[in-house]
Amino acid sequence: MENSTCNSNLDADVEDEWLQAGRQVQQEKRSRKGDNTELRRCLNERHVNMIAFSSTIGIGLFLQSGKVMYLIGPGGAVLAYLLMGSVLWSANASLGEMTAVFPVKGPIIDFPSRFVDEGVGFAVGWMAWFAYINLTATEVSAVASLFKFKFESDYLTQLNYPRETLQWDFGLGTNPAVWVTLCLVGILLINLLPVRAYGEIEYVCGCIKMFVIVSIIILNVALNARNSSRNNTSPFQFYQQPLGFFSNQTTTDPGARTYTFTGDTGRLVGMWSAMNTIFFSLQGFFTVSVTAAENKHVDRDESIKLATRKISLRVILLYVLVVFTVGLNVPYDDSNLRDQSISSIRRGQNSPVIIACIRSGLVGLPHFFNAFYIFSAFSTGVNGLYIASRLLHALASIRNVWPATGWGASIKARLAKTSSKGVPVNAVFTSWLFGLMGYLAVKPYPAKILGRMAIFSTSSMLIVYACVAIAFLLFRTRTITGDPSEDILIRTPEGEFLNRDAPDYPYKSHLQWLRSAYALLACLLLIIFNGWRTFLSPFSHADFLSAYMSIPIFITIVALYHFKDEPEWKPWRWERRVTMEVGNPVVTVEKDPEKRKGRLHRANRDDFWCKENLAAFGQFVWTWLK
Question: Is-above-0.70 flag for pTM?
Fold first, then answer.
């Protein structure tokens, strides 16, 4: 019986491989004719896991965590990361469930179009694209800025550092445009590779990032133990008075005047500013869904479900542990952490991880970590272009808003076209051109420019996540609590509904509707109060635009969609255009809920200590580690 089961599984795998090969041959034939518009399904579960992980580990964790600590203190920073992480986890789980059921091209566009309004979905796609071309440029600019690595000698002397100087002479003496150019060329070349090769590169990059981050956590625990023993101090001295769990005050400097908030007001505004800063670091959660159209075995590997859960657990856990352990060794009032500006992203010498090394007298590691930050920012820039190009390719597939003839139709056809390897080359190159904004790093004040670019990206993605949460709440109206023995798709007189209790339903989270509502409320509040500091005197027009310009852009795109498709459309008579389509859902190959991927089950119920159960446990551990 076991042999027949194994043979049937093997036959299914062989048949699946033959189908994949047949699709690739058909794509290559279409490509030679110049009419191929399909992406190629070449990514395995491990690729999706690490692409999503790598896209969230850029400059945010390493360069902005210090600002978060300064704003709200080490304990407040830990709470802020947990709180903001829970918001994005909730929104991402909503998108993950819909994508697992319908692994379509451009899910972040498709689902708002399908369940909220076609114009909203179109606008969401462009807002996400704007955010990610902006993110790519921000990461590129950060790479150039990181080469300007230099600590002031007075700071080193004050901390009794064993070296009089700590700087990169070659970086200080080189024009930032050189680093921007090298970075942009590298990002373009990697994104022009077949998606399988891109996936392998990002898998390696993600593994390196995870290893270094775990090493940072272990290093800071060891430094804290050594320093507290050597100095006869409490291991938690920087979490205790006179510093404290929260910062004593929050200070902001919008220009010619400095504002200081103390007490509960200071903690509130500090926490709010910290959460807005943190969002930029975590906004890449939805990368899992972007890869859906290039996933190889969605139904068998359940990669969307697992990757959605793993990215949330891994990123939130590692972020929180890094901030917590670094806070053990660096006081939040350290002079290199102080950042009172409304918008800024600074350099390696302002990273709390490097400052912890300086305060502990470590010589070589500051150079290593700054180099790692450059590698990390470059890798995230590569991911940013990948996401932007797939979003633009999906937007080119929306037929009824592009001109049917003329230059508009020509642009659409070119953006929708893919190479013989399934790479949307024109969408990649078009998105890459906007990465040239990275040359803003050559300006005299790159920190403010980087900060404003990050704020615009943050506000755009807040709108995207809010629309995703709304889409899921409306998607839930097309689901029912059915009998586990029934099929996933149930037809009733009122229409088609999805049975979330079906054993082959791809991905279900308990109380997901409540989590979506929570994510929606949080995103709306963050959108509204994102730029509260710009209203302090003197009013900052540039910072105000970076915080709120995305709102009128979003509304304008929605209106333009309807005006193009409905010339007589009136905003005050707006009727939603939705399909609420739930037909053709993907089901899992494994029908037994107990044996689904990511679940621990006993293969042999008669003998607890046996090879079968040990193998099942090993498979469970490997599923969550890879």
Answer: yes
SS3 612: helix
Tokens read off for 28? 């290559």
Q: What is the CA 323 to chain-centroid distance, rounded?
A: 18
CA 197 to chain CA centroid, nearest Å: 21
Q: For residues 253 and 250, what is the distance between their CA atoms, to the nearest angstrom? A: 10
The pLDDT of residue 9 is 44
**Could you give the CA distance from residue 1 to residue 425 in angstroms, rounded to a whole number?**
49
CB neighbours of residue 454 within 10 Å: 29
Tens digit of each residue's pLDDT (9 = 90 or more) over 256-300: 567 777 788 888 888 888 888 888 888 888 888 888 888 877 666
How many C-beta atoms surround the C-beta of residue 584 within 10 A? 10
Tens digits of per-residue pLDDT, 62-95?
888 888 888 888 888 999 999 999 999 999 888 8
Are 429 and 188 in contact, with CB atoms under 8 Å apart? yes
% of the chain surpassing 90 pLDDT: 25
Question: Residue 214: which residues within 8 A CB-CB, separation 6 or more?
Answer: 318
Predicted confidence (pLDDT) per residue in 362-381, tens digit: 888 999 999 999 999 999 99
Which one-letter DSSP state was computed for residue 539?
Answer: P
Asked whether 52 and 288 are in contact (CB, 8 A), the reply is yes
Q: How many Cβ atoms sit within 10 Å of the Cβ of residue 420? A: 15
Bridge partners for 480 per DSSP: 499
Burial of 529 (0-12, 13-18, 19+ CB in 10 A): middle
Q: Tell how strand 479-480 and strand 259-262 pair up.
A: unpaired
Residues in the chain: 626
| Distance from the first to the final alpha carbon of the chain | 31
Output phi, psi for 151, to 5 deg: -100, 140
